[in-house]
Design brief:
The chain has 193 residues and is of the alpha+beta class. Helices cover 31% and strands 32% of the residues. The chain has 2 domains: 2-148, Protein Transport Mog1p, Chain A (3-Layer(aba) Sandwich), CATH 3.40.1000.10; 156-193. Strands 3-4-5-9-8-7-6 form a 7-stranded antiparallel sheet, covered by helices on one side. The chain has a two-stranded antiparallel sheet with strand order 1-2.
C-alpha cells in the first residue's frame, strides 16, 4: 500500500517556473494544455482535465503573471468584475483574497476561481475554471494546489515581522543608551569644571 502511494506521489506532475519563482503539484488527472495560454501573453501555462467528470466539460487551471508584487491591501469593491464576489483562501500562513465568478457560456453555466499569490520577484494568479456543476470540486482542487505551492513571498511572515520589530527596537535602545551616556558624560564634565 505504501509503495502505491509513493509511486502515485512520484508520478504527480510538478509545475515550476524559475523566473517567476514558483513550484506546485498539478492535480492528478490534469495534463498540459497549451491552448489555454494561446492569445494571452500573461498566461504562463495551463492544464486541463484528462477525463472530465462533468458532461458540460472539464476543469482548467492556469497560471497568469501579474507584472509586479502585490501588497496586503484588500481588494476594493470597485476593482471587482461585475457579478464576482470575494472569497478567502490560504497559502502558507497567509490569508489570500480570491475572486469567485459565475458566468453564462454557450455550453452552459460555468465558474471561475482566482487566487492572487504574493510571490517575488513577481506575483501570480492561479485561475481555475469549469462547468458550474463542478464549483465545489474546483474550490477543493484550487485549495490543494495552493497548499502545494512553493515560492518566496514578498509578504513577511509573522516571525519575520517580529524579527524586524525586534531589530528596530534594538536599534532604538542602542541610540537611547548612547544619548544617555553622552548626557551623563557631559553633566559629569560640567560638574568637574
Amino acid at each position: 500500500m505504501l509503495s502505491h502511494l509513493l509511486l502515485a506521489f512520484l508520478l504527480q506532475t510538478q509545475a515550476s517556473n524559475a523566473a517567476l519563482g514558483y513550484q506546485f503539484t498539478v492535480p492528478e488527472g490534469f495534463s498540459a494544455f497549451p491552448e489555454g495560454a494561446a492569445g494571452n501573453p500573461d498566461v504562463v501555462e495551463c492544464w486541463a482535465e484528462d477525463e472530465p467528470v462533468s458532461a458540460q466539460g472539464g476543469l482548467v487551471i492556469c497560471v497568469q503573471r501579474l507584472h509586479g508584487v502585490i501588497g496586503r491591501e484588500p481588494i476594493r469593491p470597485d476593482e471587482m468584475p461585475v457579478g464576482a464576489q470575494l472569497t478567502s483562501m490560504k497559502w502558507r500562513e497567509f490569508d489570500l483574497q480570491g475572486v469567485r465568478a459565475q458566468v453564462e457560456r454557450d455550453e452552459g453555466p460555468s465558474f471561475t476561481l482566482v487566487a492572487q499569490v504574493p510571490l517575488k520577484p513577481e506575483a501570480i494568479q492561479i485561475l481555475l475554471a469549469g462547468p458550474a456543476d463542478q464549483t465545489e470540486r474546483g474550490d477543493t482542487l484550487l485549495k490543494a494546489t495552493l497548499a502545494s505551492l512553493q515560492g518566496q513571498s514578498n509578504w513577511l511572515t509573522h516571525a519575520e515581522r517580529m524579527e524586524r520589530i525586534g531589530q528596530t527596537v534594538g536599534i532604538w535602545i542602542t541610540i537611547a543608551f548612547a544619548v544617555g551616556v553622552f548626557f551623563y558624560m557631559r553633566k559629569r564634565r560640567a560638574a568637574a569644571a
